[in-house]
Amino acid sequence: MSNGRYGRFGALIGVACVSSTHCRFLIYSTKNAEVLAYHELKLRQIVHQAGWMEYDPSEIWKNTQECIETAYKNLVILEINPRDIIAIGIVNQRGTSVLWNLETGQPLHNAIGWSDCRSTPILKTLLHNVRHNVDYVRYRSGLPLSSCFSALKIRWLMDHVPAVATAIEENKCLFGTLDSWLLWNLTGGVEMGVHSTDLTNAHYTSLMNVSTEQWDPKLCQFFRVPLNILPRIRSNSEIFGYVLEGPLHGTPIAAMMGEQPASLLGQLCVKAGQNVCTLDDSCFVLLNTGREKLDSANGLITGIAHKLGEKEATNYTLEGAISNAGSTVTWLRDKLQINTEINSNDNVVESLNTFIGENSMISSSCSSSMLNAECGLAAKRSEITFVPAFHGLYAPYWRHDARGIILGLTSQTTSENIAQAAYEATGFQIFEVLQAFKRDTPNWDRSCMQPVLTFGGDYAENSHLVQFIADIIGYMLERPQTTSPAGLGVMITAGVTMKVVSLEHAVKMYTPPTDVFSPTTTKNRRELLYKRWDYAVKKCLHWNNYETYEADIELFAQRELDPNLPVRRSVPGSIFLTTSFAMILLANYLKINPLK
């Protein structure tokens, strides 16, 4: 759709990406979605104590500037005209929250990461006040009450950081997620910085009314967050401002979007009924519901897919957020010193390849030198179930008080069995979200919801793992060979703003080759293993329930004294009394009239 005034790659669009682990800047060709140049820097994660996650906002801004400058230079080295860059976009991990001083431009505290759970005590107080109704604000915000959304992070900063309370009192405080922070700095900062955000990021604060698409005064009152510190909410596709300094001086900022909705668009899941899973340290599963806004009754988030223009219609999603996926593997590797690298550990590969049971054939990936007792033991599927609820469970349970649990340990349990159980846990959590999708769409035509899941993310690059997930959930997995789906989604959005790309053009021209993984397990086998997972989840939800402790101890004592207690307890009392009385009558009758 670009005209002849651009070079051989057509109009170019740059995308600044800030994930939970990296800062990137990618420069795309709108002609075929090729990444022509890019640069990335790793983000430093600051962990003061368990469950806390912070980032240095100044470092994020500095890294973004360096990524832009280096990618720009790389483009020049490739002899591609940088003047063909017509716009840039911003994509970021939603929920990560920053407060900064309007007059100095300095952060008032480190940015609090989306998965940070320091605000759990505030959450407990709110839940107590609303009689533990986790869905108390869902009809307004589309979200359950949880510490992963920005509202409680703001509340914590107001209560615990004096500089924040002072700045708010003096009307010098601004709030934003990382998109707002980058936009404000790119457009001039203290001098003339634009303080705005987009729908997808505003929604994840739990302060936006999902129906009006504006900040909700009653939600702000409920969380006790002042309205005047919040940025202006805009659509995903419009001119937010212009870059004021650096090599891209004067370039319009034409798109902003949260990482997961951007991945949905970048994977070209633009039709209702299509879904996508992004598997990184955490995991997000999104179902495109088109223009139908569905209120979930099964623990899902009613989210925003995109709004491609101020006057355009909004597209919605149902979303399942899983807090611990790849981070579980990291925990096993770093804290327990377990080798979880699938490619370098044949025993883990064997363990994954034998998901269907003990009698499975030994996979060809196990070399002949490894066909020994050790390999056989690792390949034999263990009975371990691992629920990685380190700081609670998100979708579909939303239980901040749940804790991780490992069941089924024996003297024969190996490190490979534990690693396998960690990978299984991710698959089972994805399966739970997919089942919740079905329950929330009972009236949908199932022909438009094929058992196909588009898969992406850092961990999706490992084919063994992707096949393993397919076997657990029973879905066909499609893995498009797309570099940074979230970046592509924002490139498309910026292209729509600049009128050089349309959704129809993107679906036609940007569809990449796709790897397909089909499940190899039976439905009965999957259901059997899921029942054990469900049992383990119930255990971890009630791990600290001491209310029945004394009753349980008494029951155990009774069982020791009376071996038949379980049998008698399994018979309803009325039947027991009736049959006992009948047996007495029969015994008396036979005593008087013995059988001849």
TrEMBL record:
<dbReference type="GO" id="GO:0019563">
    <property type="term" value="P:glycerol catabolic process"/>
</dbReference>
<keyword id="KW-0808">Transferase</keyword>
<dbReference type="Pfam" id="PF00370">
    <property type="entry name" value="FGGY_N"/>
</dbReference>
<dbReference type="Pfam" id="PF02782">
    <property type="entry name" value="FGGY_C"/>
</dbReference>
<keyword id="KW-0418">Kinase</keyword>
<keyword id="KW-0547">Nucleotide-binding</keyword>
<keyword id="KW-0067">ATP-binding</keyword>
<keyword id="KW-0319">Glycerol metabolism</keyword>
<dbReference type="GO" id="GO:0005524">
    <property type="term" value="F:ATP binding"/>
</dbReference>
<dbReference type="InterPro" id="IPR018485">
    <property type="entry name" value="FGGY_C"/>
</dbReference>
<comment type="similarity">
    <text>Belongs to the FGGY kinase family.</text>
</comment>
<feature type="domain" description="Carbohydrate kinase FGGY N-terminal">
    <location>
        <begin position="21"/>
        <end position="262"/>
    </location>
</feature>
<feature type="domain" description="Carbohydrate kinase FGGY C-terminal">
    <location>
        <begin position="276"/>
        <end position="497"/>
    </location>
</feature>
<dbReference type="GO" id="GO:0004370">
    <property type="term" value="F:glycerol kinase activity"/>
</dbReference>
<dbReference type="InterPro" id="IPR018484">
    <property type="entry name" value="FGGY_N"/>
</dbReference>
<dbReference type="InterPro" id="IPR043129">
    <property type="entry name" value="ATPase_NBD"/>
</dbReference>
<protein>
    <recommendedName>
        <fullName>glycerol kinase</fullName>
        <ecNumber>2.7.1.30</ecNumber>
    </recommendedName>
</protein>
<dbReference type="InterPro" id="IPR018483">
    <property type="entry name" value="Carb_kinase_FGGY_CS"/>
</dbReference>
<dbReference type="GO" id="GO:0005739">
    <property type="term" value="C:mitochondrion"/>
</dbReference>
<comment type="pathway">
    <text>Polyol metabolism; glycerol degradation via glycerol kinase pathway; sn-glycerol 3-phosphate from glycerol: step 1/1.</text>
</comment>
